[in-house]
C-alpha cells in the first residue's frame, strides 16, 4: 500500500532519476552540437548550421533540469543519494543546503558544465548578428567543450549515484564551507573560467574560418570582459573569506589553487586589452587569438590542479588519479587542437594598422608583455616543485617569499605606465602633451609618497610605493576622464555623458590602484599582538585598548560556540563591542575560528580567540590591519568598471555587430 | 576546500599558530624569530609557513628556531641548521643554486625575450608605414570586395 506520504518520497526519487536522464540527454545533444554545425559550416549547408542554435538552447535546458534535480535532492535531504549523504545534514541551514550542491567535486562539476551550456545559450540567443558560419562554428566548439565535461561527469564523477541503504542523516558539509563568502566563491570563479571557454570557441572558430577582423574583436570583448569581471569577484570573495575565517587575517597565500585562478585572471586582463587593439586598429590579431587559447588553457589547468591533487594543494577535495588523468586528457586535447589550428592558420591573419613607436597600441603591447610574463612567473613558480622533483630529483617548495619577490616588480611597472598608456592616443602620438597633462597627478602621487615615507616608522619602501601607485592611478584616471570632456564650458555635463566604457576604464584602473595600496599597507604596516588574558583584563595595540569582558557558551543551529565579548576603545572613546568565537561542529567533528572584526575606512581591528590556558585565562590574537578594506574595495571597483564597460552602448546594441561588419574597419 | 591542511591541523589541536608561551622575552629576538619562521615551511601542511600553521610539528620547529636564536646563532645559521636537518624542502623561498636558476631567471629572461620581440614587432609596424598604405595585396582586395558585398 502506498499512502500519500510515500507518494511524495517516490516522486522525489523520480525527480532525481529524471535529472540523471536529463544529464545523459544533454551529453548526446552536446555531441550532436559539436559535429553537425561544424560539418554544415564546412559544406555550406545552412540547415545543418541552423541546428546549432536550438541544440545550444536544448543543451542548456537539459543541464538546468539536471542541476535543479540535484538541488532538489539537497534541499529535501534525499539521503538515498550518495552525494547528499556525504555533504549534507538535515539540520543544516537552508542556504548551506543549497550551496552544498557545489561544495563538493561532483556537484561543482555539474555547476561548471551548467555554466558552459549557459554561455552557449547566450551565444545562440544573442549571437544573431554573427555571420552564420562563424556562429555555427563557435557553438560547435562550445559543444565539444560541453561534451568533454559531460563525459567527465558521467564516467568519473556522477552526482546521481545512489546508496543501497539510505542512512537516517548525512555527514554534513565541511564547516569551513558553511560561510557566505565561500558559498558563492565557486560559482563566480566558474563563471569566469568558463567565460573564457567562449573566447576559446571564438578563437577556434575564427581560425577555422581563417578570418579575424575588427568585428571579431568586438564580439569577443564582452565575453572576455564578463569572464574577467566574474574572476575578479570570485577571487576577491575567496581572499576575503580567507581573511576573516582563517584566524590570522592572511588574504593571499600563493597556494597552487589560488594561483590557478590568478593566472586566468592575468591572462584575461591581457586579452581584454589586446582585443581592443584588434577592434580599433586591426592589429595584434594572431597574438590575441593565441592569448584566447592560452587563457582557456589556464582555466583548464586550474580545474586540473584543483581536482587531481597533482600539486597536493591543500584545496584538493577530490584527489583521485582517474579523474586527474581524464581532466589532463581534456586539457591536453583542447590545447593541442587550439595550438595546432593556430600554427596552421596564424599566417592568414595579417595585421593592417600601422603602429607609432609611441602610441596607445605600443603601450598596450607593453601591458600584454607585463601581464603575460607575470602570469608566466606564477605558472613556473606553481609547477616548479613538480619539475624539480621529476627532472632534478630535488624536493623543494616555492612559497610566498618567492612570488612576492618575483611577481611584484611586474605589477609596479604596470602601475607606472598605466596612466600614461590610458591617455596616449591611437596611432603615432606626441607623448609630450599627454605627459604635461599628467604632471598634476604625478606631483600629487609624489607628495603622497613623501608624506607616507615621513609618517611611517621603519624604512620599508613597500608602503610608500604602494600609496604612490594608488594616487598615481586614481589621479591619472581622473585626469583622463576630465581631458575627455574637451576644452570649453559645460565640461561637467559632458563628463556625465561620456560613454560608459570610458567610465568603466577609469573606475577599473582606479580600483587596481586602491587594491595595490591595500596590499602594500597590509604587508608593510600590520601590527600583531599575541597574549594570554583573563576576563576583565585590558591591553593595548596600535593605540587601541581592548578589554575582555566575558566568555560564554552559545548554541547555534548545528554548532556549539565559545564566544568572547570584547570592548574596543581608543583613548576614552568607546568604539564598539566585538564577539570573536570558537565554534565546534559536532557532526563534522570540526572546530573553526570565527574572528571578530571592527571594520574601518583606514584600518581593521581583528581579534581571534584561542584555547583556554592551563594556568587560566585565554589565548588572544589581535591584529591592526591598515587599509585592509581597500583590497576588496579596489576589487569591487575593478569588477564595477568591467561591468560598466560591458553595459556600454557599443555592446548593448545588438545591431552594432552587424553594422560594424558592413563597415569593415570602424572609422577612427 | 580552502585549506585541507588547516582542517587536519585543527583536528589535532584546535588552536592557532604562534602560542603566547612561545614568544621570547626579548622583542628584537622575537622579531627575528618571526622573520625566520615566515620563510620556513610546515612539513606536514601544504604551502603554509610554520608561522601560520597550527600543527604540532610546526610548533616544534618554531621552538627550535627560538632555541637556536637564544643560543646566539645568526639568522642564516638558524636557517642552515633547519635545512641541514630537514632538507631544502622546508624553504619557502627556494635557493638560487643549480636548476633553481631556471625558476629565478624565468621571469627576467621571458621579459627580455618578449620585450625584444615586441619591440621588433612595433618597430616594423612603425617603419612599414609607407609600404602598408601603398597598396592592398590581392588577398586584401578580395577581402575588401567580400566586405563591400555583404
Q: Can you describe this structure in just a few lines?
A:
The complex is a heterodimer of chains A (668) and B (150). With 668 residues, chain A is α+β, with helices and mostly antiparallel strands.
Kindly describe this structure.
Chain A has 668 residues and is of the alpha+beta class. Chain A has four domains: 7-172, Four Helix Bundle (Hemerythrin (Met), subunit A) (Up-down Bundle), CATH 1.20.120; 179-344 and 360-392, Up-down Bundle (Four Helix Bundle (Hemerythrin (Met), subunit A)), CATH 1.20.120; 402-526, no CATH class; 527-629, no CATH class. Chain A contains 23 helices and ten strands. Chain A has helices at residues 4-43, 46-50, 52-75, 82-87, 94-99, 105-125, 132-156, 180-183, 185-209, 214-245, 256-281, 285-308, 321-345, 360-391, 400-423, 431-437, 439-455, 462-484, 491-497, 500-525, 628-646, 649-652, 654-663; strands at 527-533, 538-541, 544-555, 560-570, 573-578, 581-585, 590-594, 596-599, 603-612, 618-626. In chain A, the strands form two sheets. In chain A, strands 2, 3, 4, 5, 6 and 7 form a six-stranded antiparallel beta sheet that branches. In chain A, helix 10 runs antiparallel to helix 21 (628-646). In chain A, 56% of the residues are buried. The model of chain A is unreliable at 313-318 and 654-668 (pLDDT under 50). With 150 residues, chain B is mainly alpha-helical. Chain B has helices at residues 4-12, 27-38, 56-70, 75-86, 100-127, 129-134, 138-149. In chain B, helix 2 (27-38) packs across helix 3 (56-70) and helix 3 (56-70) crosses helix 4. Chain B is elongated. The model of chain B is unreliable at 1-15 and 129-134 (pLDDT under 50).
Amino acid at each position: 500500500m502506498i499512502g500519500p506520504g510515500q507518494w511524495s518520497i517516490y516522486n522525489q526519487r523520480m525527480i532525481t532519476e529524471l535529472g540523471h536522464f536529463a544529464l545523459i540527454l544533454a551529453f548526446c545533444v552536446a555531441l550532436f552540437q559539436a559535429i553537425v554545425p561544424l560539418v554544415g559550416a564546412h559544406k555550406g549547408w545552412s540547415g545543418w548550421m541552423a541546428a546549432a542554435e536550438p541544440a545550444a538552447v536544448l543543451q542548456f535546458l537539459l543541464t538546468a533540469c539536471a542541476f535543479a534535480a540535484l538541488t532538489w535532492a539537497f534541499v529535501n535531504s534525499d539521503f538515498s543519494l550518495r552525494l547528499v549523504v556525504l555533504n549534507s545534514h538535515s539540520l543544516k541551514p537552508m542556504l548551506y543546503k543549497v550551496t552544498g550542491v557545489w561544495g563538493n567535486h561532483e556537484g561543482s562539476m555539474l555547476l561548471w558544465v551548467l555554466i558552459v551550456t549557459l554561455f552557449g545559450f547566450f551565444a545562440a540567443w544573442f549571437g544573431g548578428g554573427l555571420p552564420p558560419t562563424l556562429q555555427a562554428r563557435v557553438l560547435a566548439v562550445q559543444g565539444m567543450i560541453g561534451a568533454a565535461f559531460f563525459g567527465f561527469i558521467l564516467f568519473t564523477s556522477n552526482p546521481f549515484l545512489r546508496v543501497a541503504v539510505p542512512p537516517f542523516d548525512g555527514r554534513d558539509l565541511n564547516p569551513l564551507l558553511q560561510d557566505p563568502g565561500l558559498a558563492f566563491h565557486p560559482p563566480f570563479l566558474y563563471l569566469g573560467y568558463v567565460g573564457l571557454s567562449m573566447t576559446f570557441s571564438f578563437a577556434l572558430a575564427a581560425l577555422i574560418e581563417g578570418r579575424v577582423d575588427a568585428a571579431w574583436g568586438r564580439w569577443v570583448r564582452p565575453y572576455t570582459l564578463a569572464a574577467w569581471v566574474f574572476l575578479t569577484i570570485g577571487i576577491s570573495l575567496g581572499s576575503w573569506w580567507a581573511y576573516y575565517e582563517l584566524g590570522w587575517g592572511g588574504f593571499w597565500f600563493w597556494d597552487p589553487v589560488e594561483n590557478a585562478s590568478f593566472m586566468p585572471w592575468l591572462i584575461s586582463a591581457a586579452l581584454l586589452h589586446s582585443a581592443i587593439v584588434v577592434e580599433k586598429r586591426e592589429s595584434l590579431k594572431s597574438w590575441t587569438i593565441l592569448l584566447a587559447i592560452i587563457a582557456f588553457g589556464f582555466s583548464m589547468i586550474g580545474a586540473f590542479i584543483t581536482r587531481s591533487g597533482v600539486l597536493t594543494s591543500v584545496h584538493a577535495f577530490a584527489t583521485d588519479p582517474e579523474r586527474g588523468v581524464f581532466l589532463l586528457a581534456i586539457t591536453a586535447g583542447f590545447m593541442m587542437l587550439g595550438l595546432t589550428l593556430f600554427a596552421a592558420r596564424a599566417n592568414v591573419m595579417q595585421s593592417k594598422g600601422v603602429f607609432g613607436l609611441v602610441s596607445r597600441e605600443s603601450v598596450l603591447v607593453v601591458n600584454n608583455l607585463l601581464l603575460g610574463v607575470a602570469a608566466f612567473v606564477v605558472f613556473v613558480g606553481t609547477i616548479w616543485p613538480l619539475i624539480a622533483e621529476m627532472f632534478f630529483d630535488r624536493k623543494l617548495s616555492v612559497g610566498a617569499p618567492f612570488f612576492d619577490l618575483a611577481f611584484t616588480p611586474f605589477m609596479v611597472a604596470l602601475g607606472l605606465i598605466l596612466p600614461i598608456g590610458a591617455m596616449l592616443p591611437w596611432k603615432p602620438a606626441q607623448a609630450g602633451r599627454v605627459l604635461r597633462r599628467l604632471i598634476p597627478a604625478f606631483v600629487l602621487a609624489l607628495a603622497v609618497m613623501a608624506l607616507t615615507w615621513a609618517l611611517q616608522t621603519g624604512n620599508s619602501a613597500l608602503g610608500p610605493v604602494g600609496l604612490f601607485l594608488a594616487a598615481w592611478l586614481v589621479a591619472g584616471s581622473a585626469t583622463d576622464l576630465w581631458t575627455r570632456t574637451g576644452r570649453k564650458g559645460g565640461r561637467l555635463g559632458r563628463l556625465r555623458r561620456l560613454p560608459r566604457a570610458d567610465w568603466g576604464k577609469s573606475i577599473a584602473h582606479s580600483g587596481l590602484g586602491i587594491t595595490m595600496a591595500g596590499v602594500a599597507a597590509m604587508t608593510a604596516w600590520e601590527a600583531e599582538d599575541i597574549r594570554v588574558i583573563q576576563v576583565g583584563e585590558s591591553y593595548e595595540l596600535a593605540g587601541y585598548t581592548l578589554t575582555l569582558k566575558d566568555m560564554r557558551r552559545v548554541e547555534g543551529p548545528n554548532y556549539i560556540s565559545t564566544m568572547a565579548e570584547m570592548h574596543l576603545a581608543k583613548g576614552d572613546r568607546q568604539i564598539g563591542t566585538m564577539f570573536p568565537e570558537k565554534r565546534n561542529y559536532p557532526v563534522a567533528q570540526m572546530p573553526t575560528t570565527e574572528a571578530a572584526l571592527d571594520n574601518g575606512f583606514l584600518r581593521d581591528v581583528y581579534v581571534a580567540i584561542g584555547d583556554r590556558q592551563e594556568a587560566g585565562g585565554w589565548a588572544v590574537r589581535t591584529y591592526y590591519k591598515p587599509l585592509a578594506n581597500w583590497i576588496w574595495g579596489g576589487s569591487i571597483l575593478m569588477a564595477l568598471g568591467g561591468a560598466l564597460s560591458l553595459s556600454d552602448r557599443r555592446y548593448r546594441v545588438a545591431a552594432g555587430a552587424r553594422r560594424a561588419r558592413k563597415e569593415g574597419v570602424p572609422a577612427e | 576546500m580552502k585549506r585541507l591542511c588547516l582542517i587536519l591541523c585543527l583536528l589535532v589541536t584546535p588552536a592557532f599558530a604562534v602560542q603566547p608561551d612561545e614568544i621570547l622575552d626579548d622583542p628584537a629576538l622575537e622579531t627575528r624569530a618571526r622573520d625566520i619562521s615566515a620563510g620556513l615551511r610546515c612539513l606536514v601542511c601544504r604551502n603554509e609557513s610554520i608561522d601560520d600553521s597550527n600543527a604540532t610539528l610546526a610548533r616544534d620547529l618554531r621552538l627550535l628556531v627560538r632555541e637556536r636564536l637564544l643560543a646566539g646563532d645568526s639568522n642564516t645559521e638558524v636557517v642552515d641548521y633547519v635545512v641541514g636537518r630537514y632538507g631544502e624542502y622546508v624553504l619557502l623561498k627556494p635557493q638560487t643554486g643549480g636548476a633553481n636558476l631556471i625558476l629565478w631567471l624565468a621571469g627576467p629572461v621571458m621579459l627580455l625575450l618578449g620585450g625584444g620581440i615586441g619591440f621588433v614587432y612595433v618597430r616594423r609596424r612603425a617603419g612599414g608605414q609607407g609600404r602598408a598604405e601603398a597598396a592592398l595585396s590581392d588577398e586584401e582586395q578580395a577581402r575588401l570586395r567580400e566586405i563591400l558585398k555583404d
